[in-house]
Amino acid sequence: MSDELTLEFDGSVAILSYNRPDKHNAFNNAADAKLWELLAEIKDNKNLRAVVWRGNGKSFSSGRDLTEMGGRPEGISDLEFIENGHKNTKLFFEIEIPIIVAIKGWAMGGSFQRALLCDMRIAGESAKMRLPEVTHGVLPDTGGTARLFQIAGHGIAADMVYTGRVMDAEEALRHGVVSRVVADDQLDDTVLEVAHQISKSSAFAVKMFKRNLHNIANPEVQRSLTDEALTQAMVFQSEDYQEGKLARQQGRDPDYKCR
To answer: Percentage of the chain with pLDDT > 90?
Structure first.
């Protein structure tokens, strides 16, 4: 299997690391498959008390590797393809211990959305967060926009998705998207220290608080996943989507017709 993600252990803390630094940890199909495999391993390991999720190199993850796009398999619909991906995404709701994300450099697209589904995000000063999907003619479809709406409100979610603009670390802190900002060279140590601090608390109390927190937040996110699957499948079948792909191939501006 791929070594594009690694899993290490520091006592009762799992450290999950993207390992494609030359690509700013953009994920391809192999990296995605490895992510779900390792998250399932973490879920089943009852000796763990917290998870650190980070990236080697300059970035957490710049999102999907557009040079290695994998199309949907033959014999299933766009809706089924998206819903199959969502079955894996729901692992973030099923892991019973806190997941703390260390964000530096780029956290973009699906990777930013997945980070938003985790329990805590701590940023390095270089962190830059972006949701560029609509500017590419598709939708964010990993549940992260619902969580961003919960954290930062309608206006911020709309601004970031409609325009694809970048949110830096300090703005993310102001809106509560991250809980703290530290120097990049202190990020890994800080996040690991937080994870170990959590690991020393009552494991049952932490588990019960995570259940309470997720019972507040997750129903809306899970409903959003259902909506995103339906609307993204419609986008994939639209004339605008086909026009956008053709325009990129031909190096021209698209002529969208809203159908």
So the answer is: 90
Task: Evaluate if residue 238 carries a pLDDT over 60.
Answer: yes
Helix/strand/coil (H, E, C) string of 161-186? HHHCCEEEHHHHHHHCCCCEEECHHH
The CA distance from 22 to 18, in Å, is 11
Q: Is the pTM of this model over 0.90?
A: yes
Q: Which domains does the chain have, with CATH numbers?
A: 5-186+194-199 (3.90.226.10)
* Sheet bearing 106-108, strands edge to edge: 106-108, 128-130, 166-168
Give the pLDDT confidence of 7-53 residue by residue, as tens digits: 999 999 999 999 999 999 999 888 999 999 999 999 999 999 999 99
Identity of the residue numbered 179: S
Rounded Cα gap, residues 147 and 131, in angstroms:
13
Is residue 204 packed enough to be buried (19+ CB in 10 Å), middle (13-18) or exposed (0-12)?
exposed
Helix (H, G, I), strand (E, B) or coil at 35: helix
Name the packing angle between helices 78-89 and 203-236 (round to 10°).
170
Please tell me what DSSP assigns to residue 6. E
User: Which runs of E-coded beta strand occur in 142-249?
Assistant: 166-168, 180-182
